[in-house]
Write a structure and sequence with these properties.
The complex is a heterodimer of chains A (about 325) and B (about 280).
Chain A lengths: L1 E5 L9 H17 L2 E8 L3 H9 L5 E6 L8 H10 L4 E7 L2 H13 L4 E5 L1 E2 L4 E6 L4 E7 L4 E5 L15 E4 L9 E8 L12 E5 L6 H15 L2 E4 L1 H5 L20 E5 L5 H7 L4 E6 L12 E4 L2 H11 L1
Parallel strand pairs in A: 1-2, 1-4, 2-3, 3-10, 4-9, 5-9, 12-13, 12-14, 14-15, 15-16
Antiparallel strand pairs in A: 6-7, 7-8
Chain B lengths: L1 H9 L3 H6 L10 E5 L2 E3 L21 E3 L1 H15 L5 E8 L3 H11 L3 E6 L6 H15 L3 E5 L10 H9 L2 E12 L4 E8 L2 E8 L2 E5 L11 H7 L4 E4 L1 H4 L7 E7 L8 E3 L2 H10 L6
Parallel strand pairs in B: 1-4, 1-6, 4-5, 5-11, 6-10, 7-10
Antiparallel strand pairs in B: 2-3, 7-8, 8-9
Classes of the chains: A alpha/beta (about 325), B alpha/beta (about 280).
Chain lengths: ~325, ~280
């Protein structure tokens, strides 16, 4: 019996989130002392398989290379994972939009519960997960024979990308179910670090006033710090930036070394997405903004003066 | 799919062929919308002193916000002449009838409550919904992407799996092409968005920006009281709803203490460099 981790990738590169999920698998494996296997399903995804084989702690990489896995549609991926489920005590994926899309489908097909968004492993069957937007933590124990788990990436430090030398095994693809077809994909192109994996995040809220201000004021700061850029739901709803910038309960959950919240009041849903950051800085002109209750360093100031000043002084 | 469609076209009755000449009357697209009764999103939750859960006594309850978006989307499809009927379903305690009345006040045609006092987890809810769906034969089931209490984000995907249907989660745009038997959905994904076309019947789960839900008007609230609401017990559906996960305890997250206010940008930079050491 072994532990199976589903690789997250774009057919070229293994996403860091996979290594966070492998870290959770490694915690489970302290007690189980079995092997960690990684499933790479994609098209022309040989590079990803090589990268997965090099990850520390991985014993085997299982590769299903077929055209109908290229777009990572849930129907085909879930069918493949279920076909591979035998012999695995745990099936894990990162709680990314992809993992959240696919894994509940796998769990239902296996007639087991899914344990969502775990932030800690207490035992092979016992996990901690946030509920109520992180305002409470539940310790849950699974009675199912197979544990299907999504892993909150901020809860586990990614294992090393190198040091492993797993064997690579190619497997037969499952048939194409042909139920869902990708029409188009519009991904934000950015030279900045990915939000979920960034060490520093500069985040803007309603206080930015407009999309133009958001970019004009925050980009120089993000450039200076080599930071990723995020936003509150208010800023996204107001149309300043697109949805993939959103940090919060229903957006991305982040935990960088430094999170700079600018013109963000600090709604409970936003705090749920960033309060595990190591250091939080808040810049807001309202001294009573709730963001100051979680900020390590608060600056009560007009952001349109303070941020350029900060850029100039860095 | 294509094979069975071909077979169907060969055995169509004469009346069905007549209907082809009157496409406006062809609409027979029923939408199911499951709704969950949860703590009102404005309420600050409190963990119980004995760590058995969250205190829900005398707390205001409401329809899960993502489910309101699901109801709204279904109603818009009906108002656009795409859907014929919108049926709201809830699974849980007797008080879920209030949630269904809210759905009907917003415009759902009728409600179904699967009534039980047992704690329902997503897999059990998906199984109950499947039993209802097999009976109702909808073309589309629209669900909220997650409930704001357990934050599980599972039920829609699980229901899609159990039905053997395709799914489009985290929808920000839904376009139904009833004559083509398909739905095209734009989804919010980590790097941006993607658009999928699914064969009907299908499952859609809603994200925040799909629409802005309406408010129920007083006359509609009164009217909703007269709309049909069926109550069914899970035993009658023959579904085992016993929880698979046991909650051992519920605790408060580690509090994050408020830090200090800095006087100016210079002090902020000094602290970040020398105290927090997060910038060089």
């Amino acid at each position: 019996m072994s532990i199976l981790v589903i690789a997250e990738h774009d057919n070229l590169t293994l996403k860091v989130a996979t290594r966070n999920a492998i870290a959770a698998a490694a915690k489970i494996n302290i007690t189980l002392a079995t092997e960690i296997h990684v499933l790479v399903a994609g098209v022309a995804c040989g590079d990803v398989a090589q990268q997965a084989a090099a990850v520390a702690g991985v014993a085997k990489v299982i590769v299903a290379d077929a055209a109908h896995y290229g777009d990572q549609t849930a129907e085909n991926l879930a069918a493949l994972i279920v076909a591979q489920a035998g012999g695995h005590t745990h099936i894990l994926a990162a709680a990314t939009s992809n993992g959240k899309n696919i894994l509940p489908r796998v769990a239902a097909l296996l007639d087991v519960a899914q344990i969502s968004d775990i932030i800690a492993v207490l035992d092979v069957d016992t996990f901690v997960r946030p509920i109520y937007a992180g305002n409470a933590l539940a310790t849950v124990k699974s009675a199912d024979s197979v544990k299907v788990i999504t892993v909150r990436t901020t809860g586990f430090d990614a294992v090393e990308a190198s040091g492993g030398s797993a064997i690579i095994e190619n497997i037969q693809a499952s048939p194409d179910l042909g139920q869902a077809k990708l029409v188009s994909r519009e991904l934000t192109k950015s030279a900045r670090p990915e939000l979920a994996a960034a060490k520093i995040i500069v985040s803007g809220g309603r206080g930015m006033g407009s999309g133009e201000n958001y970019h004009k004021v925050l980009e120089p700061l993000a450039d200076k710090l080599g930071a990723a850029m995020g936003a509150s739901r208010a800023a996204v709803d107001a149309g300043f930036v697109s949805n993939d910038y959103q940090v919060g309960q229903t957006g991305k959950i982040v935990a960088p070394q430094l999170y700079i919240a600018i013109g963000i009041s600090g709604a409970i849903q936003h705090l749920a997405g960033m309060k595990d950051s190591k250091v939080i800085v808040a810049i807001n002109k309202d001294p009573d903004a709730p963001i100051f209750q979680v900020a390590d360093y608060g600056l009560v100031a007009d952001l349109f003066q303070a941020v350029p000043e900060l850029v100039a002084a860095l | 799919m294509q094979a069975s469609d071909g077979l169907k076209s060969m055995v169509r009755s004469p009346t069905e062929r007549i209907i082809d000449f009157y496409p406006a009357k062809e609409i027979d697209l029923k939408i199911l919308v499951p709704v969950k009764r949860v703590i009102d999103y404005n309420i600050k939750v409190r963990v119980k002193a004995d760590n058995t859960g969250v205190d829900l006594a005398n707390v205001k309850m409401a329809m899960n916000p993502f489910d309101e978006i699901a109801i709204e989307e279904a109603l818009r499809l009906k108002e656009a002449g795409v859907a014929s009927e919108v049926v709201a379903i809830s699974c849980g305690v007797t008080a879920c009838q209030e949630t269904l009345r809210t759905a009907m006040a917003l415009g759902a045609d009728r409600g179904i409550l699967v009534e039980t006092d047992v704690e329902l987890q997503p897999l059990a809810v998906a199984k109950l919904l499947k039993a209802i769906a097999l009976n109702e034969s909808p073309q589309l089931i629209i669900l909220g992407k997650q409930a704001i209490d357990d934050d599980a984000n599972q039920t829609g995907q699980m229901l899609a799996a159990l039905m053997g249907w395709s799914q489009a989660t985290f929808a920000s745009k839904v376009v139904v092409d009833a004559s083509a038997g398909s739905v095209t959905v734009t989804r919010e994904v980590d790097g941006g968005s993607e658009t999928l076309t699914l064969t009907l019947p299908a499952i859609v789960t809603t994200d925040l920006r799909l629409n802005e839900p309406r408010y129920a008007t007083l006359p509609n609230i009164m009217k909703a009281k007269k709309k049909p609401l069926d109550v069914i017990k899970p035993e009658i559906l023959g579904i085992d709803v016993i929880p698979r996960l046991t909650t051992l305890k519920v605790t408060d997250p580690a509090p994050r203490s408020a830090g200090v206010k800095v006087a100016n940008v210079a002090e902020l930079i000094h602290k970040l460099k020398n105290e927090a050491k997060v910038i060089a």
